[in-house]
Amino acid sequence: MSYLNFFKKKLSHFERARNKKEVIERIVSNPYQHNNDVVNLHRLDPNNVGDFYCAPHHYFDELKGKALDLFDYKNNDDSVRDNWHKTICENALIIGGGGLLNRPGFNMHMNMLEKLSQTDKKIVFWGVGHNSKSSKLYGKQIKYNITPSNYGLVGVRDYGRTEEWIPCVSCMHPIFDTSFDETREIGIVFHQKTLRNKKVISKFSDFESIANNSTFEAMVEFIASSNIVLTDSYHAMYWAMLFNKKVMVFPNSTKFYDFKYQPVISTFSNYKDDLNKLQSYDEVLEECRTVNNAFAEKAFNYLNL
């Protein structure tokens, strides 16, 4: 990288950091917070199908067209940031889903919401969960970096907590009603970041694989046509369970440890030793849809939709 490119990259990083701080401060210092309508705030990233499809605006008519990307607050375009500020100040908020809690990249958002929770702003968390990268916390009870009791309605995808369990709303997608023929015994679904790990990719080169930066339809079809799914992607794990598949995960975050139906936890190195532990679960899709529909009714009543 040339010195000029390095300087431009640093300058861009500085500008984004400044933009984030400035727009957050404008929102929390604004005394005029309203609930005129509602907006679904989540990571609206089409390059990560799990992040993209884990939000309720995709599945309920009451929320159609009412979505906002969490990361628009750092956009270099003034008009995009201004729209982010205006939209949040004027509307009630649905946060999620996804692994938004206990993740440094979303700390500023959570701090903002904690302050807004002290106003008349209506805020709903829908299917969010903890997502710490600290291996010391894997499998441990984690204190959220929000105070759930401060909010009007909170549903978390982590099971066994005092908060209501609401699995990822992507289960509502009609693609999970489609039948697919199994064409492989074992399929690997990599998180897109794992594609940079040549050692891991080489280790599994004998297996058919896909990554979570593929299209949603391609990823779901790949999962559904596999008998066993090995993955380090949360949504690949979840969607495989919706299809009643046997699942093994290679955890890269705390998010894998508190789903109601536990997959086999293993490592890239020792996965063969754990293949005989695999099991599938029945009727996960039906249960997850029932729970989300019930939560939707409560949320829409609370938000007066």
From TrEMBL:
It comes from the Bacteria. Pfam families: PS_pyruv_trans (PF04230). Residues 184-253 form the Polysaccharide pyruvyl transferase domain. InterPro entries: Polysacch_pyruvyl_Trfase (IPR007345). This is Polysaccharide pyruvyl transferase domain-containing protein.
